[in-house]
Structures are given as structure tokens and as C-alpha cells.
Amino acid sequence: MLTRDFLVNADCQSSFGTIDQQLLLSTEQRQRSLAEFMAQQPQPGTPVWVFGYGSLMWNPVLDYNEVRPAVLEGWQRGFCIRLIAGRGTACTPGRMLALKAGGRTRGLVFRISEERRAEELELLWKREMITGCYCPRWQQVSLDTGEQITALVFTINTCHPLFETDESTKVVAPLIARAQGPLGTNAGYLYSLVESMASLGEHDEKLIHLAEEVRRHSQQSVPHID
Predict the structure, then answer these.
(1) pTM for this predicted structure
(2) How many helices (H) and strands (E) does the chain have?
(3) 120 tagged catalytic
(4) Rounded CA gap, 219 and 226, in Å?
(5) Which of 40, 61, 116, 134 is the most interior residue, by most CB within 10 Å?
(6) Phi and psi dihedrals of 64, rounded to 5?
(7) Torsion of CA 133, 139, 141, 147, to 10 degrees
(8) Which of 128, 164, 167, 212 is catalytic?
(9) pLDDT tens digits along 148-194
(10) How many whole angstroms separate alpha carbon 104 and alpha carbon 110?
């Protein structure tokens, strides 16, 4: 499981598993990406909110001052990243979550500690932008109160070599069922996602069906002993 200490001390070249050097962003590239993104903040100097729709919901490992349920319009969850590190390997790849265009997504927004903003964002970039498979964006999200705020959202980079277009359950379920790595199993990630969404009152039939199929494949892979 990802912890703050692990992330702080992680060597991106090895701690998450073996990553092709051609895919790995250097520390300098990540820092440049973060600086360029923050330069585009709609209202510079205002608090930074981060929209969590995957593992950030149940394991943020961020220093934040506030967390609120929120809805992002125009983007939807999809297991569209070939997972080769963390909870998968190049030999046994899984699938990681991203946001793709269309639909809506309910998740959580975290207001980053202003006193530690630079440190927290650098840590977030280390977590999410190891290979650059996401495109960070400033997007409007709606709180349950009706208030709208601007939040940092990580969406899929459709030009990235790890982007996968086939998200059919038939293809994705067996991949998730068998993939695992230094941070745990790919299936555990999916199950935590379904639980987190349920706690927000979300009942996503597609994801629930995917989780059921992953459990079925996992059970089939366990040898029976008479």
C-alpha cells in the first residue's frame, strides 16, 4: 500500500517496479511540468483544490485542510491506462484508472494545506506523473452545496503509449484479476474504488460488474485442493 513515507523516499526508477526509461519522467521534467501547470492557475495565489476520483479518495497521503464531495461534469472514469508498475508489471500488466471525456464523475476534492502547498504538489506530481500518462487540468467542480470551485484534475493523456482504447470487461477483468506489484494488487484497487463510491452514494453498475468479473477470474485462478 502506498504510504506518505514510501512516496517521500521512493526512487521512481525502482520503488514502483521496473519502468522503461523511455517512459519515465525525470525529476526535472516533473518539476517543469508542475511549474508550467501552476503558471496557468486561473486565480494565482488562491487555495489549490485537488479532485480525487481513484486512490486519492481512500488514500490521499496529502496534507490537506478540507475535503468535500464534488461532481465533475464532462469527464468519466475509465480503466484505460496499461499498468506496468505499482500494482502491475510489464510482464503482467493491469489497468489503471483515468478520466476520459464524456459523462460525469463524483469524487472528493481536497484543499491542499497552503503552508505546505509547494511540498504537497511536488509529492502529488511524484505520485501521478511518473510516466506523464495524465494531463493535469484546471476544471470546475460542483460541491453538494451547489458552490462551484476550480480544482486540479488529472485526465488521460490519449497520446501516451500506455493509453488503451479497449476497456471492455472481457479484456480488462482478467488483467486486473492477476496484476500485482510493490503497492499491492490491481484487484484491491478496484474493490477500494467501488467501496469509496458506495460511501458517496454512487452506484456505478459498470464498475460493480467489472469487480464481480474480477472476483470470478481471481477464484478461477486459485487451484483447487481435494
Answers:
(1) 0.94
(2) 7, 7
(3) no
(4) 16
(5) 134
(6) -130, 155
(7) 160
(8) 128
(9) 999 999 999 999 999 999 999 999 999 999 999 999 999 999 999 99
(10) 18
